[in-house]
Design brief:
There is one protein chain. The protein is of the alpha+beta class. The protein folds into three domains: 79 residues; 70 residues; 62 residues, no CATH class. 64% of the residues lie in helices and 11% in strands. It starts with a helix and ends in a 22-residue tail after the last helix.
Length: 258
């Protein structure tokens, strides 16, 4: 009887030990599974963050691309109008040059023709973007006074008129900074980029504006343009190397400004 009970007790101990071993193995496997899942979750979160970042960058680039396309379309229209205006002026100058070549025949007709050229230049300045208004108006006035002088030959008068046309033509290919006043008398720094952009910035750099050729008026700009205009002024002053700058463009429906 004693042996039978001992044997039974041994069986109980073996069963208990087996259960403990079996229970321990699933617990370790579960911990490993949880660890693996946690690691996978972290990697998934990191991947999603990278996807979100790329999506934001893609949206930003797409928005910038659409904005650039609009500016390009606007510039194409404006450039077409300028080409037509320049072609008209070149045709007129060619006609005048042809008549001057026959100066002996058309001597009496030359002064009226040069007067027409001055009138056309005056009208152009009046319709163009309003930069250096005083200087340009003074140049036209000087030509009108020159036409009244008997001590100046017609050849010299014509040369001076063509020179004024060339100066106006050169404005379209240059960038320039100058200090002037707005209509309200406020002194500001103006920045002209060819004839496609005319902007200003107050001396304290707090206020910025741009000329809208279509509306023929100044428009206040938000602070997002402040740094670009300031950099453009530095480039025009040759205080820094030329670089790309983002300026507001408002192409005209007609070639010109005041």
């Amino acid at each position: 009887m004693f042996r039978i009970r001992l044997s039974s007790l041994s069986g109980v101990l073996l069963v208990t030990a087996s259960v403990a071993i079996v229970a321990q193995a699933p617990a370790q496997t579960l911990a490993e599974a949880v660890g693996t899942q946690t690691s996978a979750n972290k990697e998934g979160q990191a991947s999603q963050a990278r996807i979100d970042t790329l999506s934001d960058k893609t949206d930003s680039l797409a928005s910038e691309y659409r904005s650039t396309l609009k500016q390009i379309d606007s510039l194409k229209v404006y450039n077409t109008q300028l080409r037509e205006l320049i072609a008209s002026q070149e045709a007129e100058m060619a006609s005048l040059q042809s008549q001057i070549d026959n100066v002996e025949i058309v001597e009496r007709g030359i002064p009226p023709l040069m007067g027409q050229m001055i009138d056309a230049l005056d009208a152009f300045v009046g319709l163009d973007v309003p930069f250096l208004q005083e200087e340009r108006s003074k140049r036209v006035k000087g030509l009108r006074e020159l036409m009244l002088r008997a001590d100046v030959t017609n050849a010299e008068k014509y040369r001076r008129i063509v020179e004024a046309y060339q100066i106006e033509n050169d404005y379209g290919r240059t960038i320039e900074h100058y200090r002037g006043t707005l209509d309200d008398g406020k002194t500001v720094d103006f920045l002209r980029v060819g004839r496609i952009a005319l902007v200003y910035q107050s001396l304290d750099a707090e206020a910025t504006g741009a000329w809208n050729q279509e509306a023929r008026s100044w428009e206040l700009l938000d602070s997002s343009h402040r740094a670009a205009i300031k950099e453009g002024i530095r480039i025009a002053r040759k205080q820094t190397a030329p670089d790309m700058i983002n300026l507001p463009l408002a192409a005209a429906t007609q070639g010109g400004a005041s």
